[in-house]
Amino acid sequence: MKKLFIPITLIVFAIFSSCDLVEFNNINNNPNQPSDAAAPQLIANAMLSLPGLSSSPNAQYMAQYLAETQYVDASLYPEGGTSFYGWYQGPLVNLKTAEEVATTENQKAVARILKAYIFWNVTDRWGDIPYSEALQGTEEFTPVYDTQESIYEDLFAELKAAADQIDQSGSLSNDIIYEGDMGKWVKFSNSLRLLMALRLSEVNASLAETEFNDALNDGVFTSNEDNFLFQHLADANNQNYWYGQIVDPPIREWWALTVSLVDLMDPYNDPRLPVYGNEVRNGGGYAGLQFGEEDSIGTEDFSLLGSDIYAQDAPVYLVTYAEVLFARAEAAALNWTTEDPATNYNDAIESSIAQWTGDASQATAYLAQPDITFDPGNAVEQISTQRYIHLFMHGYQAWAEWRRTGYPDNLVQPNGNAVPLRQSYTSDEALNNTQNYEEAIQRQFGGQNSIYGRLWWDQD
């Protein structure tokens, strides 16, 4: 794993936090004052925010990867708004500005790709969001909320156009993700389109199949070397979020693996489990903590979050080759392609194990077990469950896939509260953008800004 050392000028950033998000913000905090910074600097600073797409406790609660050993209320799915403002005021406005001041086509293309990537994440958490009129500064303080359907359609077009815009013989300075390898940016853009297409399987299968195959034919990830990840450093200025939460004094042993996750892994000697969690201090082995448990918790009898996961320089995996292979396996099972679903499924698990453990050979024994061996009659459940295991610590993506497929089917209802179907809008929008906010919640949810309103692509 390469460790990218970032120039000190790119590490000067403020920390922006909200109820559900810890982001690395950038140098341009005011969306109404365009930055004078060059495009490569703006893009690199936007990249610094990317760990925030997964690195928050709330993300893991939505997927029920982690259970709280203290302060359990945060994981009981309370109603209440969460803000998307940090994404608009930080990385999105930087990327829009970068696109405008770019001096090369590669700078413009990467800014477009990253902007599309962040918007995809935002709409899949909140639903309809400001999009076509967003990021206008003083020209538009009250942007309309675009429908999620129209946002998806535009993101498909944006990603394809941006990939076509790239000059693969060129490079990109200050690229802290792919070190200027433009071929990998093309594959990343196409892989995003492929994953986005699968998300529409239950709402518009025809469009989903068309976009999926178009992205696949244009070229997606082909190995773990293509993984889109953020590599942290063993340095306080750019360390893993979880290291700061757990290791920085005082030590906080606040998170354990859930029963739901351990039950999917431990009975099958999953080689990823020793990476995901530490052995129980009182007796060894692995034991999950019931998600939402409020009584007699402690830390001695459960598997706490793995030390490899919260290491100071541990990477954050954002989009991976295994994830693409799971998508290809499901698409083949749906007869969208002529590929073999079993081959893609097996390769996905092997790539996942290689990614997390460094030893792909461990996949052979794991795949040989009857419950793990690919079963064509149970394809979607098997693929979805294995994708969930693989997406550990990328809770928002795992939560989105759970909403789409319903798998794994062993998530629980803490204190009687079902798993949310979205994040609700912040109350600030009701005050600052009243008309557009009210139109959006009426159009989607019958006027109720609830965490149980269904998104456009989430069809029961």
Automatic annotation (TrEMBL):
InterPro entries: SusD-like_2, TPR-like_helical_dom_sf. The keyword Lipoprotein applies. PROSITE patterns: PROKAR_LIPOPROTEIN (PS51257). It holds the Pfam family SusD-like_2. It comes from the Bacteria. The keyword Lipoprotein applies. Keywords: Lipoprotein. This is SusD/RagB family nutrient-binding outer membrane lipoprotein. It comes from Gracilimonas sediminicola.
